[in-house]
């Protein structure tokens, strides 16, 4: 049955041929093909000719084309001939389907998942079979009553690989260990020393003992304290220790005679297991005392007629009555000033001055003691002034009077130093009402100036 042409007139064979031949590329194509076949036939016919004969013949053939007028048409003809030869080659090599060599299998990928389709007479399309066989497709149906299973399957993640992964595929580890340990380091205050301050004054400011600062800062000299120096101030009086490999809370409490609960509370510990290198403040603990310096020479007592009494008297008792009036300021020169006043826990005034500045008696009286004492005052002098009034002069670099000696008001008794429990040169000056350390009590010296 002849196909319908939708009313368009049909060309006969003669007209189609004429149109094809009229095309210039078609003519060049035919001529190039004919030339190639002729060259092939000529080569087969003259294969036995000598090489010299072939060269002569080739030169004679190419001589007419050596001119510029004929070279361009020849080049165009050569390009057309090459294109024609390429058009004759097969477009798909044999054995390209199914593998790199050989014919292989015809088809490896099936369209529509390998399901063939068949069109029925009524125009509807149904599933026939799988590509691999005639088995029919049967969907999986969950049994009734398993709504929870169905919901779990629907909510399942797309990834089939279990484990905690980040968006970029990084595997997240399951545990990050804690690297910080609670200790007393955060409770230790750093304080910068100001001009004129002493160790005892700084200790009173923070409510701890002077020796606590001595131990916490590992001081070795009384002259170490200087302006701008940074001191560690523990929260309570005691020692700052570093945990060793054999230390426990119980062993530390036993060594320093304190309670484990006190150590835990002061340091804010949540875990009572100690770690090597952990810093702890042990409340109430004590370290080594300040070393006692050895004097270079023992000062000799000197007699004096000051105060209107005979120097030959061997009694250490002071005058019967205090002469009254204002006392002499106990330090002369040296840029002296009060670095710490009388207050609770500090029953004296501290007068900072250059080391070696003269220290003089505040009033006339008899020297009760002159020398070294291991009570923290270092080189010191005690004087009885009568009426139960006594004065003491502490931390001196040396004394210039002796016990039992009478001294007058303003007479030198020593020089400013930093002996005993002191940092930086200063005079620790006390006024007592009643016997010194034998029933008397300290009063504010500023009342007498």
CATH superfamily of the domain at 306-448: Glucose Permease (Domain IIA)
Distance between the termini: 144 Å
Largest sheet: 10 strands, antiparallel
Helix count, DSSP H or I runs of 4 or more residues? 9
Task: Write down the Rg.
Answer: 58 Å
Strand tally is 16
Helicity level, as a percent range? Answer: 10-25%
- Assess the beta-strand content as a share of residues: 15-25%
Alpha-beta classification: alpha+beta
Name of the level-1 CATH class of the domain at 306-448: Mainly Beta
CATH second-level architecture of the domain at 306-448: Distorted Sandwich
Q: What are the low-pLDDT stretches, counting only 5+ consecutive residues below 50?
A: 94-104, 121-132, 295-315
SSE succession:
HHHHEEHEHHEEHHEEEEEEEEEEE
The average pLDDT score comes to 75
**Outline:** rod-shaped
CATH-defined topology of the domain at 306-448: Glucose Permease (Domain IIA)
SSE layout and pairing:
Blueprint: H1 13-22, H2 24-45, H3 51-62, H4 68-88, E1 116-119, E2 125-129, H5 147-154, E3 189-192, H6 199-206, H7 210-216, E4 230-233, E5 238-242, H8 249-255, H9 260-267, E6 279-283, E7 337-340, E8 349-352, E9 358-360, E10 365-373, E11 378-386, E12 389-399, E13 406-407, E14 412-416, E15 426-433, E16 441-443
Antiparallel strand pairs: 1-2, 3-4, 5-6, 7-8, 8-15, 9-14, 10-11, 10-13, 11-12, 12-14, 12-15, 15-16
